[in-house]
Amino acid sequence: MSGPRPPAGDGPLPPADFRPDFDAYPMLTGDLPGIGGRIRERVEDFVVEEVPAYLPSGEGEHLYLYVEKVGIATPQLVEHLRDAGGIPEAEIGTAGLKDKRAVARQWISIPRRCQERAAVLEELGVRILDARPHRNKLRTGHLAGNRFRVHIRAARDAESARRILARLAAEGVPNYFGPQRFGREGENAVKGLAVLRGRRFGPRWLERLLVSSVQSLLFNEWLAERMRRGLFDRFLEGDVAKKHATGGEFTVTEPETERERLLRFEISPTGPIFGRKMREAAGPARAFEDEILARYGLARQAFGRRRGDRRFARVPLREWSVEPSPEGLWVSFALPKGAYATAVLREVMKVPLAPGEADEADEPTDELTSGRD
Fold first, then answer.
1. Burial environment of residue 51 by CB neighbours within 10 A (0 to 12, 13 to 18, 19 or more)
2. 132-184 pLDDT per residue, tens
């Protein structure tokens, strides 16, 4: 039994015409001119390659397949292995979802006993680039990150692109959730706010998805306000900091003492993914988070059924490059898992991204999908 919902809060609701506006969020490189252009006019304009957390060992009861798919969503690939290959869906593993409108290379796992059935992937035009045994099934989140190679058409100013990417590499990429987290015209977040107020929208899995959009929205609002107040690369007393190398978290009691480690990109502030297991901020940092909740008439207990987590305010940008092409520029870079290519491209291009131009960034993430309702 799930029981009654925790109270959402008693503050004012957003206006009826409220919609999340991703394009309004502050940029780190707002003082540098963008290069404009268009992306994803063709499937081959967006290439994403999964960076695994580990490579298969060569021994075990599972078979890891490194595949290349073009114009195929990861769930479609899994369904085909299930329906055409007869492999139980519960025994098929993926580390993350890769976008449909892309050339995507990723690892999947199947039981080793089903090795011959992997041939059904050829029916979808999926290429198997590598196959190796391993001890365990591949699970969500078992990846280090992704490499992206994006063709920006009708863009010519390579030097401006390089200046922007160099700034992001030095100071970090604002770790916004991309607009695709919120559904068409932000309707998922709007419905999620209604769910938290007691309205029903169907099965539990759908309501969990809608509430996760609200969690993402609140994080984005927190990050945007940090940037507006000059706190992107500074700690507040009571912030929860996180180590980039190990993921360890701790509460910041003396912001200036931690400043050098922050500037060396050893640690960064984290923002709230509200939920029962999220490490709570303290003092001024907690009050800052409460300001964001109050904008939406929410209280922390509204997310008592959600697992919760902390999310980096910024992420490192690595392996970046810019190459001219006859039609524009190829921009390449690597990001850690859960980060969105959209967060980089909006800084480089500085034009609104049309629906369908955003990336999926391995949705759904553990920090948002774990819950008990």
1. middle
2. 999 999 999 999 999 999 999 999 999 999 999 999 999 999 999 999 888 88
> Per the domain annotation, does 1 fall within a domain?
no
Q: Verify that 213 and 273 share a domain, yes or no.
A: yes
- Rounded Cα distance between 99 and 79, Å, is 16
Residue 179 counted as domain residue: yes
As given in the structure block, the two tokens for residue 226 are: 């940090």
The pLDDT of residue 1: 38
User: Which residue numbers are catalytic?
Assistant: 99
- Residue of 75, 85, 167 lying closest to 119 (CA atoms): 85
- How far is the C-alpha of 25 from the C-alpha of 346, rounded, in Å? 10
Q: pLDDT of 279-331, one tens digit each?
A: 999 999 999 999 999 999 999 999 999 999 999 999 999 999 999 999 999 99
Domain that holds residue 111: 54-140
Q: Which two tokens stand for residue 291?
A: 């300001």
Helix 158-171 and helix 341-349, axial crossing angle in degrees, nearest 10: 130
Q: Three-state SS for 373? A: coil
One domain, residues 95 and 196:
no
Whichever domain contains 236, its CATH number is 3.30.2340.10
Share of the chain above pLDDT 70, in %: 90
Work out whether strand 143-153 and strand 46-52 pair parallel, antiparallel, or are unpaired. antiparallel
Q: Tell me the whole-structure pTM to 2 decimals.
A: 0.90
Note the helical H segments in the chain.
74-83, 158-171, 187-196, 204-228, 259-263, 283-295, 341-349, 366-369
